[in-house]
Specification:
Layout lengths: L1 E5 L2 E3 L5 E8 L8 E6 L6 E6 L9 E3 L7 E6 L4 E6 L8 E8 L13 E4 L3 E5 L2
Parallel strand pairs: 2-11
Antiparallel strand pairs: 1-3, 3-8, 4-5, 4-9, 5-6, 7-8, 9-10, 9-11
């Protein structure tokens, strides 16, 4: 399994970024994926997940910290999951990771459990 994130960078408060994560090594459309982030000195937190496209596994979920500002989507033809981030705040500064569960048809939920494979991360810095 391989996950490669891109799209991070420096953006001013109120700006937008779109992160991408290209996956390989598994049947993409069958798996739930998620985005996590980790800010300096803080624990890693799950911020959004998207369920399998082939079996109903919970649709999408957003943590309260990003609800209404971020949107997760997937393109199964490109084996890619996206995170559109709008109205960015300084507290969104973190390394962002995509992750995939270890088995197909795993549920997307607020508990962010079962994520066995991770990308290398991409830095997002929100600052004026």
């Amino acid at each position: 399994v391989q996950l490669v994130e891109s799209g991070g960078g420096l953006v001013q408060p109120g700006g937008s970024l779109r992160l991408s994560c290209v996956a390989a090594g598994f049947t993409f459309e069958d798996y739930t994926l998620a985005w996590f982030r980790q800010a300096p000195g803080k624990e890693r937190e799950g911020i959004s997940c998207i369920g399998s496209s082939t079996v109903s596994t919970g649709g999408t979920y957003y943590a309260d910290s990003v609800k209404g500002r971020f949107a997760i989507s997937r393109d199964n033809a490109k084996n890619t999951v996206y995170l559109q981030m709008n109205s960015l705040l300084p507290e969104d500064t973190a390394v962002y990771y995509c992750a995939v569960v270890g088995a197909p048809y795993y549920y997307c939920s607020r508990y962010f459990q079962g994520y066995d494979y991770w990308g290398q991360g991409t830095q997002v810095t929100v600052s004026s």
